[in-house]
Amino acid sequence: MSADLRNVKSLIIVFAMKGCPACEEYTPKLVQFVQGFQAHGIPFVFYTHGELAPGQIPVLVYDAAAQDPDVQALADQYKVEALPTTVLLARNARPVKLEGALEDNQIYELLASAAIASR
Prior knowledge:
It is a single chain. The protein is an alpha/beta fold. The chain has a single domain, classed as Glutaredoxin, CATH 3.40.30. It has three helices and five strands. It has a five-stranded mixed beta sheet, covered by helices on one side. Helix 1 packs across helix 3 (104-117). The longest helix is centred in the first third of the chain and has 19 residues, at 21-39. The radius of gyration is 13 Å and the shape is globular.
């Protein structure tokens, strides 16, 4: 989880886990929406490791059940109490935390907000 995200203007973090019905409903829809934005030239990338190109908007999906202390510290930092939890981080703005499986319009607004913040 040692991502260097200092030059990123916005990013999305998702905490989910296998076996969680709400997570299993939400995660594929999120992927589909991200792919739709990508098809329109919005530089979202599902980030796992490595360098990010300038302007890319990382989407980080973490297993909330992982025993990784860094993942747990991040979940604690954003007070993750329900799954899935999605956090939008944008420079010069407060984090936006959304709990539960988001509706289509909420996913669209989340991604649009991240794209606008990355301009």
